[in-house]
Write a structure and sequence with these properties.
- It is a single chain.
- The chain is of the alpha+beta class.
- Helices cover about 55% and strands about 20% of the residues.
- It has helices spanning about 5-20, 25-30, 40-45, 65-75; strands at about 20, 50-55, 60-65.
- Strands 1-3-2 form a 3-stranded antiparallel β-sheet.
- A hairpin with a 3-residue loop joins β2 (about 50-55) and β3 (about 60-65).
């Protein structure tokens, strides 16, 4: 992962880890069609985030253990 993408991924994971986020919030803030900065896609491909479907609450996004490890290594 490039340094820029790595830094953006860390920022996104810190943001998601701070409080529960809906998938809609995450996509509004971090979704992109730019092929050079696929932050959400890179995090999902590396299993740093997981989507959870909640009854009546839509889809929520949370950090996985791998996502927390990624943050811990870069703290």
């Amino acid at each position: 992962m490039s340094d820029n993408l790595d830094a953006l991924t860390r920022d996104m994971l810190e943001w998601i880890g701070a409080e529960p986020r809906s998938r809609r919030q995450v996509m509004a803030a971090w979704g992109t069609s730019c092929p050079r900065l696929p932050v959400w896609e890179a995090a999902a491909d590396r299993h740093f985030v997981a989507r959870e479907h909640r009854d009546g609450g839509g889809t929520m996004v949370r950090l996985t253990a791998l996502g927390r490890e990624f943050l811990d290594r870069r703290a």
